[in-house]
Automatic annotation (TrEMBL):
Top-rank lineage group of the source organism: Bacteria
InterPro entries according to UniProt: ACT-like_dom_sf, DUF3388, UCP021288_ACT
Domain DUF3388: 70-255
SUPFAM superfamilies on file: ACT-like
Protein species of origin: Lysinibacillus zambalensis
The protein, known as: DUF3388 domain-containing protein
Signal sequence, start to end: none
Amino acid sequence: MSDWYFEYEIQVNRPGLLGDIASLLGMLRVNIISINGVDEDRRGMLVHTDNDETIERFRTIVSTMEHINVTKFRQPKLRDRLAIRHGHYIPRDADEKNTFRFVRDELGILVDFMAELFKKEGHKLIGIRGMPRVGKTESIVAASVCANKKWIFLSSTMIKQTVRNKLAGDEFSDNNIFILDGIVTRRSSDERHLQLVREMMNMPSIKVVEHPDMFVQHSDYRIEDFDYIIELRHHPDEEITYEIMEKNHMMSESNSFGGF
């Protein structure tokens, strides 16, 4: 028993094409879970079968159909499931495969994407880049709600500048989402806060770091340590620069983690 993601590019968009494919799946006793267009000329299907041999038979048959070109046939990845839900793929950096790009108009997809990551158990380090007031923190909180997880701010500027130096009670739970602002933590001189961050980083939990490039400066961490990097922009061509943000935080290059 397993799910499969099947995607094809339409070569000739004739009437009845989708019906032919659906009928073939039905004859092979393969259930269609969901279906959607993932591009102007591509359609994706999430299907389920109790017998994987029928999938191989289906793959063999559709590969001979002249009106379509099969582009993907695999057990579904997270990006496949989201493409089915929202109708298009999340752009991913060609060189850095763990970097995903969104624009502000796609906050709904971003929240859905992060919520799926948050639902997975165990350690996960996620960085999110973006200029001020683009929706970074709001998206993280909304995704936590969707994943039914409690979120804990270790450092933030969402309402006012926050720097936590201790946690209490169930705040130390591995099931929580820990959020910190890399710029605020970088400029902090509170050793108790920095120690708390170190403890949190060693916990088998999900951590989300805004401004990860600033977070890794003067620290023992590297960008390569992040499992996912998310970039959020107001528009696709916006440049993410830290000069303005550093000025907003009244920072200078002489500031450091003090051993962080």
